[in-house]
Design a protein that fits this description.
Number of helices: 13
Radius of gyration: 21 Å
Strand content: 25-35%
Helix content: 25-40%
Largest sheet: 8 strands, mixed
Shape: globular
Distance between the termini: 33 Å
Length: about 375
């Protein structure tokens, strides 16, 4: 029998494994895919996540594998700045900076620092039921009994659906392409995350390593014809956008509908707790989805320092985390709508430009301050 099982080896599940290792717990992580392979695109680890990795002794490894980002810029289609947030001051204060990195590289670093043998691949959870302990049935025929279960199994969480029987996935009405490409970005963009807002669409890019650039393109699904190509949709944007799109091989582009989870009443039940997207999936507009899963793991670790009763920890965990993740889910959803307005864009851009940088920094601080 297992004492602790974590379902899902995404960034949240792997971080939780590293936290439990630091507290000398035995655990097993079950992951549905046969290998942790370089799928997905880039990701930004904000200062809050990097502070957690600092506690885990992984900060430098992650910084070396990725690219440090010191400012966040929002611009219009022709690259004219609407708003800019320099975060050097926050970096100094928290002794961490934003790092843009390939998702798979990050997962690799997190997986490599786990105790050997605790990561079981090719274990896709089919059913879970509660008897005296939890009985986990996997598609490969394995059956495992586990005392404590963490559901780090994403927005479509089978654990949430089967045990807590809750959760409504909401579509944002937006479709997003994500691409990875070897590309020489102009030097002025090397240390920044850059996003352009147009009519019913936006485009962002960030350098994630010496050669690689990660970009994303989001559109309001109903506003563009289904057979329009990306290059067609973004032809009114600066030529840099078209160069990025055209330089990217189609197998290096993935496309998804953007959704989130409407807030659920409870993230835990006896001996079982949801973390990350399974508990509070958010749209990617604030770049905080994975970062909040990482914070979840950190807070669980901090609570375990004071109390080894997992059920008491689960309750305290939700009480501490709830307010911040609800704020992020709601704010992120709103930003998604505002950034893809179809009308009144120059007015929107004008208003955005009026927001003082100190206010943007205040919002950034609210997000990157850890609760414990």
């Amino acid at each position: 029998m297992n004492n602790i099982s974590i379902i899902g080896a995404g960034i949240g599940g792997l971080t939780l494994g590293n936290v439990l290792k630091q507290h000398q717990y035995d655990f097993t992580i079950y992951e549905s895919t046969p290998e942790i392979k370089p799928v997905g695109a880039g990701i930004m680890m904000a200062v809050n996540a990097m502070q957690v990795f600092n506690h885990l002794g992984l900060k430098e490894k992650i910084e070396n594998a990725g690219n440090k980002i010191h400012r966040i810029v929002i611009a219009n289609e022709s690259l004219q700045t609407i708003s800019k947030t320099e975060i050097l001051e926050l970096e100094t204060h928290y002794n961490s900076c934003n790092v843009a990195i390939h998702r798979a590289e990050l997962q690799q670093i997190l997986a490599e620092s786990l105790p050997s043998g605790c990561l079981q691949l090719n274990h896709s959870l089919q059913t879970i039921r509660k008897e005296e302990n939890y009985i986990l049935h996997f598609e490969n025929g394995n059956q495992i009994e586990s005392k404590i279960v963490f559901g780090a199994d994403g927005i479509k969480s089978p654990i949430r659906n089967q045990i807590l029987k809750t959760g409504i996935i909401r579509s944002s009405g937006q479709k997003c392409w994500r691409g990875l490409v070897d590309f020489d970005l102009p030097e002025k963009h090397h240390q920044e995350a850059f996003e352009m807002w147009g009519k019913g669409k936006r485009f962002g890019f960030v350098k994630i390593s010496k050669k690689k650039v990660y970009w994303y393109a989001c559109i309001n699904e109903n506003s563009f014809s289904l057979d329009a190509s990306l290059a067609d949709i973004f032809k009114d944007f600066d030529s840099l956008v078209l160069q990025l799109i055209e330089a990217t091989e189609s197998e290096n582009i993935i496309c998804n509908i953007i959704s989130d989870l409407s807030p659920i009443p409870k993230w835990y039940t006896e001996n079982l707790c949801l973390t990350g997207d399974a508990a509070h999936a958010t749209t990617p507009n604030m770049g905080q989805g994975a970062c909040q899963a990482i914070e979840d793991a950190y807070i669980i670790g901090k609570l375990l320092e004071k109390n080894q009763d997992f059920n008491a920890v689960f309750e305290a965990f939700q009480n501490i985390r709830r307010k911040k993740v609800d704020y992020i889910v709601n704010t992120s959803r709103t930003i998604g709508k505002i950034s893809q307005w179809e009308k009144g864009n120059s007015f929107r851009n004008f208003l955005m430009g009026l927001i003082p940088e100190s206010m943007n920094l205040k919002m950034a601080k609210r997000i990157i301050e850890l609760e414990m």
